[in-house]
């Protein structure tokens, strides 16, 4: 048995010393020291030895096992170090080479316009309010002075989900929800409500079944139409240039009284008349007006004490006018050739 151990040791050490990769080394470890390996078999046979031979053979067997274990560990360390060295050599980076240019992303035109409008109104003390896109009929219509069967509902062909639930047709429901919960002990209402809205419409160069709106609302004591015009004048000059003139024309919206539409002097021709303004010198931008007393009362606000103004605009229209975009569908097709024309705002 001692001869077997010596022969096994010499054979194993020779193979271990000649191995060239870690995978083969692991196979040798299993081959010689595993549960089914020769070392295990020799140890099993020790029970047949005499009481005098057993300690001597056991000591030598343990010594051989330890020598093989140490040889495998040393070879593993050498092969591991060589592997890391080779990997480092293969993956060496020449830090003197010029770097790869990283192109800066470009914000979507519509996002840029919305953020520009938001920044303007936040600077004037407004806060941003948001609400659900799947809305109750009550908040979308009834709380805004549009009861069931009101003829003005025909102005907004809606996507109904159930009889009393629909995709909101405007962001005005957010205003209704804010007014319903507001406590004037905390100050006046000054909010803008940006978000997506949905109406059944045929998509073409100027219409879309899904678009965005930004509506604004101010409610406090002694709010007048002059406050509305002053606010909209600041908006027009910021978005279209300091030399813009503003005019308000009478109009009709169920949730405001009086209702007005705002026009700005044409930024293309300066008011002389051109293709952009269709020869009138003016461009329609948005609808607005003083909040209807019924809307205030529906939200639990005393219309004899408080008044307010509201306005609503389409960022798509602002973007199309400001940047001469001739088709609203360009804003939704995710065409990088279009998007990359508009640089990131600093």
UniProtKB/TrEMBL annotation:
<dbReference type="InterPro" id="IPR004529">
    <property type="entry name" value="Phe-tRNA-synth_IIc_asu"/>
</dbReference>
<comment type="subunit">
    <text>Tetramer of two alpha and two beta subunits.</text>
</comment>
<dbReference type="Pfam" id="PF01409">
    <property type="entry name" value="tRNA-synt_2d"/>
</dbReference>
<feature type="binding site">
    <location>
        <position position="257"/>
    </location>
    <ligand>
        <name>Mg(2+)</name>
    </ligand>
</feature>
<keyword id="KW-0963">Cytoplasm</keyword>
<dbReference type="InterPro" id="IPR010978">
    <property type="entry name" value="tRNA-bd_arm"/>
</dbReference>
<feature type="coiled-coil region">
    <location>
        <begin position="65"/>
        <end position="92"/>
    </location>
</feature>
<dbReference type="GO" id="GO:0016740">
    <property type="term" value="F:transferase activity"/>
</dbReference>
<dbReference type="InterPro" id="IPR002319">
    <property type="entry name" value="Phenylalanyl-tRNA_Synthase"/>
</dbReference>
<keyword id="KW-0175">Coiled coil</keyword>
<keyword id="KW-0460">Magnesium</keyword>
<dbReference type="InterPro" id="IPR022911">
    <property type="entry name" value="Phe_tRNA_ligase_alpha1_bac"/>
</dbReference>
<dbReference type="GO" id="GO:0000049">
    <property type="term" value="F:tRNA binding"/>
</dbReference>
<dbReference type="Pfam" id="PF02912">
    <property type="entry name" value="Phe_tRNA-synt_N"/>
</dbReference>
<keyword id="KW-0030">Aminoacyl-tRNA synthetase</keyword>
<dbReference type="GO" id="GO:0000287">
    <property type="term" value="F:magnesium ion binding"/>
</dbReference>
<keyword id="KW-0479">Metal-binding</keyword>
<keyword id="KW-0067">ATP-binding</keyword>
<dbReference type="GO" id="GO:0140096">
    <property type="term" value="F:catalytic activity, acting on a protein"/>
</dbReference>
<keyword id="KW-0547">Nucleotide-binding</keyword>
<dbReference type="InterPro" id="IPR004188">
    <property type="entry name" value="Phe-tRNA_ligase_II_N"/>
</dbReference>
<dbReference type="InterPro" id="IPR006195">
    <property type="entry name" value="aa-tRNA-synth_II"/>
</dbReference>
<dbReference type="GO" id="GO:0005524">
    <property type="term" value="F:ATP binding"/>
</dbReference>
<feature type="domain" description="Aminoacyl-transfer RNA synthetases class-II family profile">
    <location>
        <begin position="109"/>
        <end position="321"/>
    </location>
</feature>
<keyword id="KW-0436">Ligase</keyword>
<dbReference type="InterPro" id="IPR045864">
    <property type="entry name" value="aa-tRNA-synth_II/BPL/LPL"/>
</dbReference>
<keyword id="KW-0648">Protein biosynthesis</keyword>
<protein>
    <recommendedName>
        <fullName>Phenylalanine--tRNA ligase alpha subunit</fullName>
        <ecNumber>6.1.1.20</ecNumber>
    </recommendedName>
</protein>
<dbReference type="GO" id="GO:0004826">
    <property type="term" value="F:phenylalanine-tRNA ligase activity"/>
</dbReference>
<dbReference type="GO" id="GO:0005737">
    <property type="term" value="C:cytoplasm"/>
</dbReference>
<dbReference type="GO" id="GO:0006432">
    <property type="term" value="P:phenylalanyl-tRNA aminoacylation"/>
</dbReference>
<comment type="similarity">
    <text>Belongs to the class-II aminoacyl-tRNA synthetase family. Phe-tRNA synthetase alpha subunit type 1 subfamily.</text>
</comment>
């Amino acid at each position: 048995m001692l001869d077997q151990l010596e022969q096994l040791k010499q054979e194993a050490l020779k193979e271990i010393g000649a191995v060239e990769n870690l995978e083969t080394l692991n196979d040798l470890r299993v081959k010689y020291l595993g549960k089914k390996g020769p070392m295990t078999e020799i140890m099993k046979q020790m029970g047949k030895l005499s009481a005098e031979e057993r300690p001597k053979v056991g000591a030598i067997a343990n010594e051989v096992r330890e020598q093989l274990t140490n040889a495998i560990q040393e070879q593993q360390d050498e092969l591991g170090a060589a592997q890391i060295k080779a990997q480092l050599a293969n993956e060496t980076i020449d830090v003197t080479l010029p770097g790869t240019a990283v192109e800066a992303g470009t914000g979507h035109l519509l996002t840029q316009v919305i953020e520009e409008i938001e920044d303007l109104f936040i600077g004037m003390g407004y806060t941003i309010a948001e609400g659900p896109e799947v809305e109750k009929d009550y908040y979308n219509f009834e709380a805004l002075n549009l009861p069931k069967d009101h003829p003005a509902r025909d102005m907004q062909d809606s996507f109904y989900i159930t009889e009393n639930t629909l995709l909101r047709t405007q962001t005005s429901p957010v205003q209704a929800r804010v007014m319903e919960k507001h406590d004037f002990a905390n100050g006046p209402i000054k909010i803008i409500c940006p978000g997506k809205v949905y109406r059944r419409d045929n998509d073409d160069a100027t219409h879309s079944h899904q678009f965005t709106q930004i509506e604004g609302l101010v409610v406090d004591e002694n709010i007048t139409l002059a406050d509305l015009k002053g606010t909209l004048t600041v908006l027009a000059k910021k978005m279209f240039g300091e030399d813009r003139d503003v005019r308000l024309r009478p109009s009709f919206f169920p949730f405001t009284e009086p209702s007005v539409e705002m026009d700005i002097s044409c930024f293309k021709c300066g008011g002389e008349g051109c293709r952009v303004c269709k020869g009138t010198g003016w461009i329609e931008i948005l609808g607005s007006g003083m909040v209807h007393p019924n809307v205030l009362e529906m939200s639990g606000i005393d219309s004899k004490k408080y008044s307010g103004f509201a306005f609503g605009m389409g960022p798509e229209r602002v973007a199309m006018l400001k940047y001469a975009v001739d088709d609203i569908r360009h804003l939704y097709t995710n065409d990088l050739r279009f998007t990359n024309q508009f640089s990131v705002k600093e």
